[in-house]
Design goal:
This protein is mostly helical and about 350 residues long. The chain contains 33 helices and no strands. The termini are far apart. The protein is about 85% helix and about 0% strand.
């Protein structure tokens, strides 16, 4: 069959004359001879890329790949760096054989070829996740991200839902590029991947608030909260102080999960965010008293109440009024006056 090939392809005869290693390769690999006979572009490629000849000699699976994927032959002709990559990564050859869409991706994205050369784990990821190949084809910025963040490659390998998320949210790709801590967060919190898929506003929030990324890493309950409360995502975007609050107060994360009205309250009263940061007892109170959240939302005095609470330690007679307040609020029905008294309490009542 090789004689027939050489008769039809004069350029290949010149190639064999200059590349003795390729002649040895063709002698041992009859399938490759068939490939060269059907793919004139590949003959030109082998003539210009001596490293590829060495690759084909060592990787029999790649010969089968080239036979089935004409687009890949064009890719190898234009991307010399990819030839080096295939020589060092046998798993990638298997990946290219099974994923025709990836061949098209590599042809259009030269930066991705460099990425695959440096990150062997990513090759395994692409083999198992066909959706990710489609994602890389549409998002050139993500290719740059994967090149700089090796931890993200491990994350994508373990979280198939995240691949779908990245495909739909181009802003998130930019976010991951700038926030290395978030990559670690996504690796440990599978629920957060689902959250990002459903909440496009949250992707913008994470891009602007680096402190929130640290918060999500330490508080798994907050990931569940964000998934259920779209209003909270808007709140976190506008209130940077609240991100610090959530990081220090794990009880507040539980509170926000159960009280959707509180999210609206925090969005309208920035001074309340500062209050929650300084008063751990108030977080517990809001968790047990649903009526209080409503009181803060509708009361015209709500900003004043929050401001008063900052001076609570210097108020006189607060501890004496604590017992009376508990007795009058047993039915979870607090008046604005009772709310003012409650917010004026010190952190540790007598």
């Amino acid at each position: 069959m090789l004689a027939e090939t050489l008769r039809c392809k004069p350029m290949l005869a010149e190639t064999l004359r200059c590349k003795p290693m390729l002649a040895e390769t063709l002698r041992c690999k009859p399938m490759l001879a068939e490939t060269l006979r059907c793919k004139p572009m590949l003959a030109e490629t082998l003539r210009c890329k001596p490293m590829l000849a060495e690759t084909l000699r060592c990787k029999p699976m790649l010969a089968e790949t080239l036979r089935c994927k004409p687009m890949l032959a064009e890719t190898l002709r234009c991307k010399p760096m990819l030839a080096e990559t295939l020589r060092c990564k046998p798993m990638l050859a298997e990946t290219l054989r099974c994923k025709p869409m990836l061949a098209e991706t590599l042809r259009c994205k030269p930066m991705l070829a460099e990425t695959l050369r440096c990150k062997p784990m990513l090759a395994e990821t692409l083999r198992c996740k066909p959706m990710l190949a489609e994602t890389l084809r549409c998002k050139p910025m993500l290719a740059e991200t994967l090149r700089c963040k090796p931890m993200l490659a491990e994350t994508l390998r373990c979280k198939p839902m995240l691949a779908e998320t990245l495909r739909c949210k181009p802003m998130l790709a930019e976010t991951l590029r700038c926030k290395p801590m978030l990559a670690e967060t996504l690796r440990c919190k599978p629920m957060l991947a689902e959250t990002l898929r459903c909440k496009p506003m949250l992707a913008e929030t994470l891009r602007c608030k680096p402190m929130l990324a640290e918060t999500l890493r330490c508080k798994p309950m907050l990931a569940e909260t964000l998934r259920c409360k779209p209003m909270l995502a808007e709140t976190l975007r506008c209130k940077p102080m609240l991100a610090e609050t959530l990081r220090c107060k794990p009880m507040l994360a539980e509170t926000l999960r159960c009280k959707p009205m509180l999210a609206e309250t925090l969005r309208c009263y920035p001074v309340l965010a500062e209050t929650l940061r300084c008063k751990p007892m108030l977080a517990e109170t809001l968790r047990c008293k649903p009526m209080l959240a409503e009181t803060l939302r509708v009361s015209r005095d709500a900003p004043v109440l929050a401001s008063v609470s900052r001076d609570a330690p210097v108020l006189a007679g607060v501890s004496d009024r604590w017992s009376a307040l508990v007795q009058t609020s047993s039915a979870d029905c607090l008046t604005p006056q009772a709310a003012r008294l409650l917010m004026a309490l010190p952190d540790t009542p007598a």
